[in-house]
Specification:
The chain has one domain: Orthogonal Bundle (MetI-like fold), CATH 1.10.3720.10. The two termini are 36 Å apart. Helix 7 packs antiparallel against helix 8. The chain contains 12 helices and no strands. 35% of the residues are buried. By secondary structure, it is mainly α.
Protein backbone atom coordinates (compact mmCIF):
# COMPACT_ATOMS: atom_id res chain seq x y z
CA UNK A 1 0.00 0.00 0.00
CA UNK A 2 2.85 2.42 0.72
CA UNK A 3 5.16 1.47 -2.15
CA UNK A 4 3.64 4.11 -4.41
CA UNK A 5 4.90 6.83 -2.05
CA UNK A 6 8.56 6.19 -2.80
CA UNK A 7 10.56 8.40 -5.12
CA UNK A 8 11.20 5.44 -7.40
CA UNK A 9 7.48 5.23 -8.22
CA UNK A 10 7.45 8.62 -9.99
CA UNK A 11 6.60 7.99 -13.66
CA UNK A 12 9.44 8.63 -16.08
CA UNK A 13 7.26 11.13 -17.97
CA UNK A 14 7.01 13.29 -14.85
CA UNK A 15 10.75 13.12 -14.25
CA UNK A 16 11.48 14.20 -17.81
CA UNK A 17 8.95 17.01 -17.53
CA UNK A 18 10.52 18.11 -14.25
CA UNK A 19 13.99 18.13 -15.84
CA UNK A 20 12.68 20.05 -18.84
CA UNK A 21 11.02 22.73 -16.70
CA UNK A 22 14.15 23.02 -14.54
CA UNK A 23 16.24 23.49 -17.67
CA UNK A 24 13.81 26.12 -19.02
CA UNK A 25 13.94 28.03 -15.74
CA UNK A 26 17.75 27.90 -15.82
CA UNK A 27 17.77 29.23 -19.39
CA UNK A 28 15.38 32.02 -18.40
CA UNK A 29 17.68 33.01 -15.52
CA UNK A 30 20.69 33.08 -17.85
CA UNK A 31 18.83 35.18 -20.40
CA UNK A 32 17.87 37.62 -17.66
CA UNK A 33 21.47 37.84 -16.41
CA UNK A 34 23.12 38.28 -19.81
CA UNK A 35 22.07 41.95 -20.31
CA UNK A 36 23.14 42.85 -16.76
CA UNK A 37 26.52 41.16 -17.13
CA UNK A 38 27.14 42.74 -20.54
CA UNK A 39 26.17 46.23 -19.36
CA UNK A 40 28.25 46.07 -16.17
CA UNK A 41 31.23 44.59 -18.02
CA UNK A 42 31.05 47.25 -20.74
CA UNK A 43 30.80 50.07 -18.19
CA UNK A 44 33.78 48.70 -16.26
CA UNK A 45 35.93 48.24 -19.37
CA UNK A 46 35.10 51.66 -20.79
CA UNK A 47 35.00 53.60 -17.52
CA UNK A 48 37.83 52.14 -15.42
CA UNK A 49 40.65 53.95 -17.33
CA UNK A 50 39.12 57.33 -16.44
CA UNK A 51 38.96 56.67 -12.69
CA UNK A 52 41.55 58.38 -10.51
CA UNK A 53 41.59 60.72 -7.54
CA UNK A 54 41.67 63.93 -9.56
CA UNK A 55 38.78 62.70 -11.72
CA UNK A 56 36.67 62.21 -8.59
CA UNK A 57 37.56 65.55 -6.97
CA UNK A 58 38.24 68.11 -9.72
CA UNK A 59 35.78 70.32 -11.53
CA UNK A 60 35.01 69.80 -15.25
CA UNK A 61 37.24 71.64 -17.69
CA UNK A 62 36.75 72.76 -21.28
CA UNK A 63 37.40 70.17 -23.98
CA UNK A 64 40.90 71.39 -24.90
CA UNK A 65 42.10 71.50 -21.28
CA UNK A 66 43.09 68.15 -19.73
CA UNK A 67 42.37 67.03 -16.17
CA UNK A 68 38.65 67.57 -15.86
CA UNK A 69 36.73 65.76 -13.15
CA UNK A 70 33.25 65.04 -11.81
CA UNK A 71 33.61 66.40 -8.28
CA UNK A 72 30.71 68.89 -8.53
CA UNK A 73 28.45 66.19 -10.00
CA UNK A 74 29.18 63.81 -7.12
CA UNK A 75 28.58 66.61 -4.63
CA UNK A 76 25.36 67.73 -6.32
CA UNK A 77 23.94 64.21 -6.52
CA UNK A 78 24.78 63.59 -2.86
CA UNK A 79 23.19 66.85 -1.71
CA UNK A 80 20.00 66.51 -3.75
CA UNK A 81 19.47 62.84 -2.92
CA UNK A 82 20.20 63.60 0.75
CA UNK A 83 17.65 66.42 0.89
CA UNK A 84 15.13 64.31 -1.03
CA UNK A 85 15.61 61.51 1.51
CA UNK A 86 15.00 63.88 4.42
CA UNK A 87 11.76 65.03 2.75
CA UNK A 88 10.44 61.72 1.49
CA UNK A 89 11.23 59.30 4.32
CA UNK A 90 8.96 60.84 7.01
CA UNK A 91 6.12 61.27 4.49
CA UNK A 92 6.56 57.83 2.93
CA UNK A 93 6.92 55.99 6.23
CA UNK A 94 3.92 57.80 7.71
CA UNK A 95 1.80 56.99 4.67
CA UNK A 96 2.93 53.36 4.71
CA UNK A 97 2.00 53.03 8.39
CA UNK A 98 -1.44 54.47 7.65
CA UNK A 99 -2.00 52.09 4.71
CA UNK A 100 -0.93 49.07 6.77
CA UNK A 101 -2.48 49.76 10.16
CA UNK A 102 -5.75 51.40 9.12
CA UNK A 103 -6.68 49.54 5.90
CA UNK A 104 -10.39 49.71 6.78
CA UNK A 105 -10.37 53.49 6.41
CA UNK A 106 -11.86 54.88 3.19
CA UNK A 107 -9.15 57.54 3.18
CA UNK A 108 -6.50 54.80 3.41
CA UNK A 109 -7.98 52.98 0.41
CA UNK A 110 -8.11 56.12 -1.71
CA UNK A 111 -4.63 57.25 -0.62
CA UNK A 112 -3.13 53.84 -1.31
CA UNK A 113 -4.57 53.84 -4.82
CA UNK A 114 -3.27 57.38 -5.38
CA UNK A 115 0.16 56.31 -4.14
CA UNK A 116 0.24 53.46 -6.67
CA UNK A 117 -0.71 55.85 -9.47
CA UNK A 118 2.02 58.31 -8.42
CA UNK A 119 4.59 55.50 -8.40
CA UNK A 120 3.83 54.87 -12.10
CA UNK A 121 4.07 58.52 -13.16
CA UNK A 122 6.79 59.24 -15.77
CA UNK A 123 9.61 61.08 -14.05
CA UNK A 124 9.62 63.77 -16.76
CA UNK A 125 6.03 64.66 -15.78
CA UNK A 126 7.15 65.09 -12.17
CA UNK A 127 9.98 67.26 -13.43
CA UNK A 128 7.54 69.50 -15.33
CA UNK A 129 5.32 69.76 -12.24
CA UNK A 130 8.22 70.87 -10.01
CA UNK A 131 9.48 73.19 -12.77
CA UNK A 132 6.15 75.02 -12.78
CA UNK A 133 5.80 74.91 -9.01
CA UNK A 134 9.33 75.81 -7.90
CA UNK A 135 11.57 76.93 -10.76
CA UNK A 136 9.13 79.42 -12.27
CA UNK A 137 8.19 80.70 -8.81
CA UNK A 138 11.81 81.27 -7.73
CA UNK A 139 13.04 82.24 -11.22
CA UNK A 140 15.99 79.90 -10.84
CA UNK A 141 17.00 76.29 -11.34
CA UNK A 142 18.30 74.96 -8.05
CA UNK A 143 19.33 72.03 -5.89
CA UNK A 144 16.15 72.51 -3.84
CA UNK A 145 13.97 72.12 -6.94
CA UNK A 146 15.89 68.99 -7.95
CA UNK A 147 15.58 67.54 -4.45
CA UNK A 148 11.83 68.16 -4.35
CA UNK A 149 11.41 66.41 -7.71
CA UNK A 150 13.41 63.42 -6.47
CA UNK A 151 11.44 63.33 -3.21
CA UNK A 152 8.16 63.07 -5.15
CA UNK A 153 9.62 60.03 -6.93
CA UNK A 154 10.82 58.50 -3.66
CA UNK A 155 7.67 58.92 -1.55
CA UNK A 156 5.52 56.20 -3.21
CA UNK A 157 8.42 53.72 -3.14
CA UNK A 158 9.02 54.26 0.58
CA UNK A 159 5.28 54.19 1.32
CA UNK A 160 4.64 50.95 -0.53
CA UNK A 161 7.64 49.08 0.91
CA UNK A 162 6.75 50.33 4.40
CA UNK A 163 3.20 49.07 4.00
CA UNK A 164 4.32 45.64 2.77
CA UNK A 165 6.95 45.35 5.51
CA UNK A 166 4.47 46.13 8.29
CA UNK A 167 1.82 43.82 6.87
CA UNK A 168 4.02 40.79 7.50
CA UNK A 169 4.31 41.63 11.21
CA UNK A 170 2.08 39.05 12.97
CA UNK A 171 -1.22 40.41 14.25
CA UNK A 172 -0.67 38.50 17.48
CA UNK A 173 2.01 41.04 18.42
CA UNK A 174 -0.45 43.89 17.97
CA UNK A 175 -3.17 42.07 19.90
CA UNK A 176 -0.85 41.15 22.76
CA UNK A 177 0.39 44.72 23.06
CA UNK A 178 -3.08 46.25 23.12
CA UNK A 179 -4.29 43.54 25.51
CA UNK A 180 -1.75 44.86 27.99
CA UNK A 181 -3.39 48.27 27.78
CA UNK A 182 -0.88 49.89 25.40
CA UNK A 183 -2.54 52.38 23.07
CA UNK A 184 -2.69 51.66 19.36
CA UNK A 185 -0.28 54.37 18.29
CA UNK A 186 2.29 53.27 20.88
CA UNK A 187 1.85 49.69 19.66
CA UNK A 188 2.54 50.81 16.11
CA UNK A 189 5.61 52.85 17.07
CA UNK A 190 7.19 50.52 19.61
CA UNK A 191 6.14 47.07 18.41
CA UNK A 192 5.14 47.08 14.76
CA UNK A 193 7.77 49.46 13.42
CA UNK A 194 10.47 47.94 15.61
CA UNK A 195 9.68 44.49 14.21
CA UNK A 196 9.53 45.65 10.59
CA UNK A 197 12.43 48.10 10.71
CA UNK A 198 14.58 46.08 8.30
CA UNK A 199 11.87 46.27 5.66
CA UNK A 200 11.67 50.02 6.15
CA UNK A 201 15.42 50.32 5.66
CA UNK A 202 15.14 48.24 2.49
CA UNK A 203 12.49 50.55 1.06
CA UNK A 204 14.52 53.65 1.84
CA UNK A 205 17.62 52.21 0.16
CA UNK A 206 15.62 51.23 -2.93
CA UNK A 207 14.16 54.73 -3.14
CA UNK A 208 17.64 56.29 -2.81
CA UNK A 209 18.96 54.06 -5.59
CA UNK A 210 16.06 55.06 -7.85
CA UNK A 211 16.51 58.78 -7.16
CA UNK A 212 20.27 58.72 -7.69
CA UNK A 213 19.85 57.51 -11.27
CA UNK A 214 17.11 59.91 -12.36
CA UNK A 215 17.96 62.32 -15.19
CA UNK A 216 14.74 63.68 -16.70
CA UNK A 217 13.40 65.59 -13.67
CA UNK A 218 16.80 67.12 -12.99
CA UNK A 219 17.00 68.53 -16.51
CA UNK A 220 13.98 70.68 -15.67
CA UNK A 221 14.85 71.50 -12.06
CA UNK A 222 18.60 71.42 -11.30
CA UNK A 223 19.70 72.10 -14.91
CA UNK A 224 23.36 71.24 -14.22
CA UNK A 225 26.54 73.15 -13.50
CA UNK A 226 30.32 72.91 -13.75
CA UNK A 227 30.94 74.43 -10.32
CA UNK A 228 30.84 73.17 -6.76
CA UNK A 229 27.82 74.22 -4.70
CA UNK A 230 27.88 77.55 -2.94
CA UNK A 231 24.15 77.60 -2.20
CA UNK A 232 21.03 75.48 -2.57
CA UNK A 233 19.20 78.01 -4.74
CA UNK A 234 21.42 77.81 -7.80
CA UNK A 235 21.86 75.45 -10.77
CA UNK A 236 23.46 72.24 -9.52
CA UNK A 237 25.51 69.49 -11.11
CA UNK A 238 24.50 65.83 -10.91
CA UNK A 239 26.01 62.59 -12.18
CA UNK A 240 23.09 61.66 -14.47
CA UNK A 241 23.09 65.16 -15.99
CA UNK A 242 26.83 65.06 -16.58
CA UNK A 243 26.62 61.62 -18.19
CA UNK A 244 23.81 62.79 -20.49
CA UNK A 245 25.63 65.97 -21.49
CA UNK A 246 29.00 64.31 -22.10
CA UNK A 247 27.61 61.24 -23.85
CA UNK A 248 25.66 63.33 -26.36
CA UNK A 249 28.61 65.62 -27.11
CA UNK A 250 30.87 65.15 -30.18
CA UNK A 251 34.08 65.08 -28.09
CA UNK A 252 35.92 61.83 -27.44
CA UNK A 253 37.46 63.06 -24.17
CA UNK A 254 33.99 63.80 -22.82
CA UNK A 255 32.80 60.36 -23.91
CA UNK A 256 35.59 58.81 -21.84
CA UNK A 257 34.64 60.91 -18.82
CA UNK A 258 30.98 59.98 -19.31
CA UNK A 259 31.95 56.30 -19.09
CA UNK A 260 33.90 57.01 -15.91
CA UNK A 261 30.95 58.85 -14.36
CA UNK A 262 28.65 56.01 -15.42
CA UNK A 263 30.93 53.53 -13.65
CA UNK A 264 30.76 55.56 -10.43
CA UNK A 265 26.96 55.73 -10.65
CA UNK A 266 26.60 52.02 -11.44
CA UNK A 267 28.93 51.12 -8.58
CA UNK A 268 26.82 53.23 -6.21
CA UNK A 269 23.63 51.53 -7.41
CA UNK A 270 25.17 48.05 -7.06
CA UNK A 271 26.39 48.77 -3.53
CA UNK A 272 22.92 49.96 -2.52
CA UNK A 273 21.23 46.93 -4.06
CA UNK A 274 23.68 44.54 -2.40
CA UNK A 275 23.01 46.29 0.88
CA UNK A 276 19.28 45.77 0.33
CA UNK A 277 19.85 42.05 -0.32
CA UNK A 278 21.92 41.72 2.84
CA UNK A 279 19.28 43.55 4.88
CA UNK A 280 16.53 41.32 3.50
CA UNK A 281 18.60 38.19 4.15
CA UNK A 282 19.27 39.19 7.74
CA UNK A 283 15.60 40.04 8.17
CA UNK A 284 14.44 36.60 7.08
CA UNK A 285 17.14 34.92 9.20
CA UNK A 286 15.93 36.79 12.27
CA UNK A 287 12.32 35.88 11.51
CA UNK A 288 13.20 32.18 11.14
CA UNK A 289 15.13 32.31 14.41
CA UNK A 290 12.13 33.81 16.18
CA UNK A 291 9.86 31.09 14.77
Amino acid sequence: MTQGLGSGSIPSGRRYLDLLMTALVGVAVLLALIPLVLIVADVIIQGAPAINLSFLTNSPTPVNIPGGGIGPAIEGTSVMVGIATLISVPIGVGAGIFFSEWPESRLSTISSFTNDVLAEFPSIVIGIFVYVLIVLATHSFSAIAGAIALSVIMVPIVARTTEESLKIVPNTLREASMALGISRWKTVIRIVISTGKNGLATGILLAVARAAGETAPLLLTALGSTFFLTGLFQPTAALPLLIYTYATSPYQVWHEQAWGAALILVAFMLVLNLTVKLVIGRKFSEMRAEI
